[in-house]
Design brief:
about 350 residues, alpha/beta, Rossmann fold, Helicase, Ruva Protein, domain 3, Zinc Finger, Delta Prime, domain 3, 3 domains, five-stranded parallel beta sheet, two-stranded parallel ribbon, 17 helices
Length: about 350
C-alpha cells in the first residue's frame, strides 16, 4: 500500500465515509491511483447530487493558473449546504503553489479544499506543507514496490468476490508493473471476461484477454532460474529474442536482479528459517519459499557474481561497451552465466 506522511490511505477513506472531513487535503506523490481514489471519494461523499451543482468546483491547473482564483473559490460560502468542495487538479502545474499558505493557515470551515499534486511531492520545507499538516491532511502516495503488486491485485479483487491464482497474479504484475490505474483497468477487463458462474482468474484467462503468454514470460523465466531449469530458461530467453517488443530485456534484467538482490539479503539474515526470512525481508511466505529454493541452487558467492553480471548486462543493454552483440545475444550470455 502506498505510504503517507500523515494518515494512511485507509484512515483517510474511513474518515471520509464517517463524514469526518478536514478543511484541506494535500494529496501528493508519484502514484496517482491513490490520489484519484481519495479525491473521488470526497467528491462523491461530501455533497448530495443536488448540492454538487452549486457547491462543488473542480479547477484544472495550468502554468497560467492564478493561485488567487483558487483562494477566492475556497473563501466562498456554500449555497443551501453545510459545505462546498473545491478540488484542485494537476496542482503540480502551479508555479506559485506556496501562495496558498495564507489561506490554509486559517482555512474556511465550510470549505473542503482538495489539492491533487501528482508526479512528485510539494517541497516539504515549504510553509504550505507545514500549514496543511497543522490544519488538514497531507498524504504522500508512493509507487508500490514490485513485491507488493500481488497483494494489491488480491486486495482489489477480494471486495468484488473474485480470486486469482498465483501464476495469473505474477503474470499481471510482471507485464503491467506498478502502473496501478492501468492495472485496475486490466483487472476489470478480466472480471468481465470470467465465464458465468466462475470467480477465479486463471493464467489461461490472462493469456486469452491480456495477451500475455502463460509459458513465456518473465515470471516463468524467474521460476526457471530459481529451479535452475536450464532447458526451460533457454526456451523462454529464445522466445524473448524473437519477441523483443513484448519482452524488453531491460525489464527482464530488473526482475532477475530483484531476485538475486533478495537472495543476497537473505544470506545475511540472522535467522534463515522461513519465518526469520519473512521478518527480515518483509516478504510473504510464497516469496520466501522461492528464495529458499534458489539458495539451495546458488551459493552466496555465485549470487554476488550474478549481481555483478546483471549490472554489466544492464550497462551493455543501454549501449555502453556493447560492441557488435545484439540484445538477444547479451541476454543469452547472461542466462548461460547464471545457470552454469
Amino acid at each position: 500500500m502506498a505510504k503517507s506522511v500523515g494518515p494512511s490511505y485507509q484512515e483517510i477513506i474511513k474518515g471520509v465515509e464517517q463524514r469526518q472531513f478536514a478543511p484541506v487535503y494535500l494529496l501528493m506523490g508519484e502514484e496517482s491511483y491513490y490520489i484519484d481514489k481519495i479525491s473521488d471519494a470526497i467528491a462523491s461523499t461530501v455533497l448530495t447530487e443536488e448540492e454538487q451543482g452549486f457547491n462543488q468546483m473542480v479547477i484544472y491547473c495550468t502554468r497560467d493558473t492564478d493561485v488567487t482564483n483558487i483562494i477566492t473559490a475556497a473563501k466562498r460560502y456554500p449555497m443551501m449546504s453545510e459545505f462546498q468542495v473545491v478540488i484542485v487538479k494537476e496542482a503540480q502545474n502551479l508555479l506559485k503553489i506556496d501562495e496558498l499558505s495564507d489561506y490554509v493557515t486559517n482555512p474556511s470551515r465550510s470549505t473542503i479544499l482538495v489539492i491533487c499534486h501528482k508526479n512528485g511531492n510539494v517541497d516539504k520545507r515549504k510553509k504550505l506543507v507545514a500549514a496543511i499538516q497543522k490544519n488538514g491532511v497531507v498524504y504522500e502516495s508512493q509507487k508500490l514496490k514490485d513485491s507488493a503488486l500481488p497483494g494489491f491485485i488480491e486486495g482489489y479483487l477480494k471486495p468484488k468476490g473474485v480470486t486469482i491464482d498465483t501464476n495469473a497474479s505474477m503474470m499481471m504484475a510482471d507485464h503491467i508493473g506498478a502502473d496501478l490505474n492501468r492495472m485496475v483497468g486490466e483487472l476489470d477487463k478480466l472480471i468481465i471476461a470470467l465465464p458465468k458462474g466462475e470467480s477465479k482468474i486463471t493464467a489461461d484467462l490472462v493469456e486469452e484477454n491480456i495477451g500475455i503468454s502463460k509459458e513465456f514470460n518473465n515470471w516463468e523465466l524467474r521460476s526457471a532460474i530459481i529451479q535452475k531449469d536450464i532447458f526451460k530458461a533457454n526456451r523462454i530467453i529464445a522466445y524473448f529474442e524473437s519477441n523483443p517488443k513484448a519482452n524488453p530485456p531491460v525489464a527482464t534484467v530488473a526482475i532477475i536482479f530483484s531476485l538475486f538482490a533478495s537472495m543476497m539479503q537473505a544470506y545475511y539474515a540472522p535467522e534463515k528459517t522461513e519465518y526469520g526470512l519473512m521478518q527480515h525481508l518483509g516478504m510473504g511466505s510464497w516469496q520466501v519459499k522461492d528464495l529458499m529454493i534458489a539458495m539451495k541452487n546458488y551459493t552466496a558467492r555465485k549470487t554476488m557474481e550474478v549481481i555483478a553480471k546483471l549490472r554489466e548486462t544492464d550497462t551493455k543493454l543501454k549501449g555502453i561497451e556493447k560492441g557488435s552483440a545484439s540484445d538477444g545475444e547479451i541476454m543469452k550470455e547472461l542466462i548461460f552465466f547464471i545457470l552454469h
